[in-house]
């Protein structure tokens, strides 16, 4: 069985594509023995490393049955959202007091310490804390505080943490870029009842977004501005990361498949992740790399 060290990028809702990527790699006989990830990639990667990816997939596909507004505590004045309730749900899914060093898959979540202005790799310690620190998007989510440090989304410095895989031993290094500029169209179909429920979830997100528009006449909310800003930063840094570190297989998910906060599109994005992975394996297989 061929082994894989996997780098998963951040990209909010687009991170659901990582679920499809992992499923397709496993279905093709690859063993994932190491994961380095940022933001949403860290969430999905942690779920796989903890053996809870199937539970997580089922949860995100049925998120429309929950009241998403009740999972997020937001303060209009501060322009920030607290994620304690959301991560409590993820914590229940993972289990209590799970340590990174005890996982069957080597795992590293990338964050940024804005007090010391440096990149931080969480490769040991509390798993839930690590993924929360890695995914605290500045200007949207509250920073995660611990011992005088403030941690935010690792994507502001390193959204494709291939370098964190340098000391892993695998047959292949696979990087998944969910913010790619490639132009690919996907023919994805879902059932009508699922589409209806997804639209209900979208309405809930729109309610949140409107609360962050001080001027309702403006076209863009803080979510739009933050998302676009992050996309620009991440794309600017990505080429440097790939130039610095060897990647055997690069799986690219187009940036335009959805907006960063289109969390209602879980089913479509998971399918896109599977299709993109299948195409990448065929491409690199033809080049005799795998």
TrEMBL record:
Gene3D superfamilies: Cytosolic phospholipase A2 catalytic domain. Residues 6-166 form the PNPLA domain. It holds the Pfam family Patatin. A motif (DGA/G) lies at residues 153-155. It comes from the Bacteria. GO terms for biological process: lipid catabolic process. The keyword Lipid metabolism applies. InterPro entries: Acyl_Trfase/lysoPLipase, NTE, PNPLA_dom. One of its GO terms (molecular function) is hydrolase activity. This is NTE family protein. It comes from Desulfurella multipotens.
